[in-house]
Amino acid sequence: MIRSLRSLSLRGLFFASVALMAVSLSAQDSLHVRIDRLVDTTNPVPPTQLIGDAEYLRRISIDLTGMPPSISETRAYLADQNPAKHVAVVDKLLASNQFVRHLTDTFDVMLMERRRSGIIKQEEWYAWLLASFRQNKPWNQLAKEILSADGVDPQLRPAVRFYLDRGSEPNLLTRDVGRMFFGKDVQCAQCHDHPIIDDYKQADYHGIHAFLSGGYAFAAPDNLTYYAEKSGTEEKFVSVFFPDEQKEIAPKLIGQPEIDEPKFYPGDEYTVKPDKTVRPVVKFSRRQKLAELATDGTNRAFNENIANRLWALAMGRGLVHPVDLHHSGNPPSHPELLKLLGEEIARMNFDTKAFLRELVLTETYRRSIDLPADLAERSVVAQ
């Protein structure tokens, strides 16, 4: 209920603006200050009031830990006269075990969507995620470990669940990699250019598919299943509307050029050649390249996708909504704000905890869910 109510307030607060104007922002200011300045400057009507202490404590506790505050915590917070007590409670919650658990639950659902565990047990996967967030592992490192996972390293074996528990099926993986790591669901561009979204082309789908089409599950003699990779799989496709026009594409990310792959003589593509009892090892891994290109801090779609998802976690709704349908026909409510957030999370080395701290320290986060009674009159004036 809280989440749905806050979504309504955010629509009133953020979506009243049709377009976002450029605003002068000092890089020396804290990110939460720049966010507020950007939001307040570009909204055509005054923002709603800040919520009271009791409502704020409940909101921040549920958003950061998934649990409401206790009676004793509430009494102590209400009695505290420190004007910066909201900062102190944010830091306390972010340092708690409950925050780590809540963030782990959130990313577990985001990445696996409550799939039943198969080759990799849910308990192993969850424990690995929990340990990652407990040590505050940067998101780009976590994503790189998932995208490049093969299950060989015992310390990273749980990460291969992303591939193996999707049956190692390249088309399903293409869709989910596009959605979860880049905020773009290109599934409907598999057989032709997307029928509704002009931005999503068939070449975009097959560019990602080419990174993943050589992957498969390999059952080894040690009774473990690994994720293996074939070398040099050709990516050819035709549109169902133009079946005589066959096209070929090298691996590429959406909006990026095709990668330049090294060439090998036939039979020389592998460090460990394929065999029924031996997992092959390619000299050039397309999946490793995918992981590198996605997570090196320069891919805007990757950066803005995680910034938007964390914004949605804090605010109840993404600047792009749904979070996996970012395209020109569904632009962010505040384009300059999303651009800023994408740049800043990369500058912060994808520190999820530090980034969330900035979001929840904003006055934007502390605004009331109750829209002004005179909103209609204000809207007329703003026109």
Notes on the structure:
This protein is mainly alpha-helical and 383 residues long. Helix content is 47%, strand content 7%. The protein has helices spanning 2-14, 31-42, 53-65, 71-79, 85-94, 97-112, 122-134, 139-147, 161-164, 170-182, 202-212, 286-295, 300-315, 335-347, 352-360, 375-382, and strands at 215-219, 225-229, 236-239, 242-248, 270-272, 281-282. The protein has a two-stranded antiparallel ribbon. Strand 5 and strand 6 (281-282) form a beta hairpin. The radius of gyration is 23 Å and the shape is globular. It starts with a helix and ends with a helix. Residues 1-24 have low confidence and may be disordered.
Question: Which descriptors would you attach to this protein?
Answer:
single chain, 383 residues, mainly alpha, two-stranded antiparallel sheet, globular, disordered N terminus
